[in-house]
Design a protein that fits this description.
Layout: H1 8-14, H2 28-39, E1 50-55, H3 58-82, H4 91-107, E2 113-120, H5 126-129, H6 133-145, E3 149-150, H7 160-166, E4 173-175, E5 179-182
Antiparallel strand pairs: 1-2, 2-4, 2-5, 3-5
Length: 212
């Protein structure tokens, strides 16, 4: 039975990147709920230039999945393999994360549904991303609330032109992420992060934050 919850803080604290997904179909009404959560997010000037491509076609997923796996095998896996564990984690946990990422690279085309968040407009920048990533996070949290696994990945952008052509995107529309969605093989959270004291300052950079 999917681990559903409606407690917002529990959702945020347990929304891990779920990279091992079952191929079982996901009901359309649940995907609709996730998309509705996405369009509930803010966007710059409330212009809502976002567009969301829902991908279920096995042939398209196979084609894009091959580019994704190539990006992982040739670019990302070697970099992670030669690096140090992520902050706040052990080498063993880091290895488990890499194993899960390898699984996703090998099986991303088997995830029953992909959501590809896009924005209209040329030349993506950090500021344009601020009009789509709140929607992405809303969708990830909604998936968790519904007991569905998902993750935000941008590895395919190593082959951006090829992938966006495979997805049939117009020249003035760009993708900002790929969210594979499905029922998770594992369990949710809790997420593991570095302590606040290591990343939060007060008034000036480097000055400790002192909560009362």
């Amino acid at each position: 039975m999917p681990e559903q919850t409606h407690d917002l803080f529990e959702i945020m604290a347990t929304t891990r990147s779920m990279r091992r997904l079952k191929p079982d179909p996901v009901p359309d009404q649940l995907i609709r709920k996730i998309l509705e959560a996405g369009v509930s997010a803010p966007s710059g000037g409330n212009m809502q230039r976002w567009r969301f491509l829902v991908v279920k076609d096995p042939a398209i997923k196979q084609t894009v999945g091959a580019y994704y796996k190539r990006a992982w095998d040739e670019v990302v896996a070697p970099r992670y393999g030669a690096g140090e564990p992520a902050p706040g984690t052990t080498r063993e946990r880091f290895k488990r994360m890499l194993d899960a990422a390898q699984h996703l690279a090998d099986h991303i085309h088997e995830a029953p549904v992909w959501v590809v968040p896009c924005l209209e407009g040329p030349n993506p920048t950090r500021t344009t991303g601020s009009s789509i990533y709140p929607a992405v996070q809303n969708m990830l949290l909604a998936a968790r609330a519904l007991g569905l696994g998902a993750t935000l990945t941008t590895l395919y952008l190593n082959f951006e032109k090829e992938v966006e052509a495979s997805l049939g995107l117009p020249a003035d529309v760009h993708s900002y992420a790929l969210l594979p969605i499905g029922y998770p093989m594992g369990r949710f959270g809790p997420v593991r992060r570095v302590p606040l004291d290591a990343v939060v300052y007060e008034d000036r950079w480097g000055q400790p934050y002192r909560d009362k």
